[in-house]
Amino acid sequence: MSLTITLRRPDDWHLHLRDGEVLQTVLRYTTRHFARAIVMPNLKPPVTTVQLAREYRNRIVAALDPEAQFTPLMTAYLCDQTPAEELRRGFEEGVFTAVKLYPAGATTHSEFGVTSTAKVARALESMQAIGMPLLVHGESTDPAVDVFDREAVFIEETLTPLLRDFPELKVVMEHITTEQAAQFVSGDGSGRLGATITPQHLLFNRNALFMGGIRPHYYCLPVLKAERHRLAIRRAATSGDPRFFVGTDSAPHLRVLKEAACGCAGIFNAPSALQSYLNVFEEEGALDKFEAFASVNGANFYGLPLNEGTITLRKQPSEVPEDVQLPNCAAIHPFLGGSTLPWTLVDGPSP
Ligand code: DOR
Ligand code: ZN
PROSITE patterns from the xrefs (predicted)? Predict the structure, then answer.
């Protein structure tokens, strides 16, 4: 009898679902594993208002398979001019769960993001007052800063002053990738700072980008880091520290747009994310900590109830599809596509 593990249904606290045909195609890979997801607002145009978030949420719900049990949790895309009142209204009406801060120019579709914390001070004050979390893409946008140092520089130059100036603001440092970030979050004593960690940053270091040639399907932002950073975030994720939780950052792009002279940043990991995390916890001898990381810590951070249902995975190989096809013949190549995972989902709807 092979090993099985049953846990409370997990949530994905950082997810890109896109829109239109891509949304329709990728959504089921998330809903077969996750009960809820924090949905990123970096559409074109970005989700900046309550009205746009309501409409996007309706499109997500309309795209669900009939048997899916899934709640999308919407976020507002913060711009320099976003009125504090719009954020407060969206939060109080149950449309916005949180606000996403992209430093302008840091990543995919971030061109309408924030140019300086001072410009959004009123919005942050209001969020602090009502307990509305701020989710940060924590990378410096200074072109003079080495791409591998951008997270550490952001912590020093932007995040530290922001936490000092808004001492009650709830903040999630999204997709942490470095030893500095892991230490910064675990050393914080205020209880209002959390962090998400992706499967790719737990499984691979930056060598993966250059294995025998350039590997666009391993390219995301923040970029994969050196081995010592991978080991540090593995320790953080598997430590049982409640400040760390799942956030896949699954970010689909068409294969043709990644395999290009200027390939897009983003890894579509929804088909394999949960099994990948589980594999990491097994390798670290921390299976007893997996449910907290996947299904408890994030909900507690956001002050949301834990999910009632369970899912079961078995230690049995499963294949990741080489490609996920879109109706128009385009394809998305998933993370670990064409390879075999050691764990298989044995209940829940299949895609
Ligand atoms: O690699 C990334 N892709 N990082 C981000 O921050 C955005 C995401 C996307 O939307 O594709
Ligand atoms: Zn993201």
Answer: DIHYDROOROTASE_1, DIHYDROOROTASE_2
Tell me, using a 6 A CB cutoff, whether residue 135 lines ligand 1.
no
Whether this model's pTM surpasses 0.90: yes
Spatial distance between the Cα atoms of 294 and 154, rounded to a whole number of angstroms: 27
307-338 per-position pLDDT tens digit? 999 999 999 999 999 999 998 889 999 999 99
* Burial of residue 89 (number of CB atoms within 10 Å: 0-12, 13-18, 19+): middle
Residues in CB range of 330: below 8 A, 6 or more apart: 254, 255, 256
Atom number in ligand 1 closest to CA 102: 6
Spatial contact of 138 and 181, defined as CB atoms under 8 Å apart: yes
When comparing pLDDT for 172 and 1, which is higher? 172
Domains and CATH numbers, the chain: 10-306 (3.20.20.140)
CB distance 137 to ligand 1 below 6 Å? yes
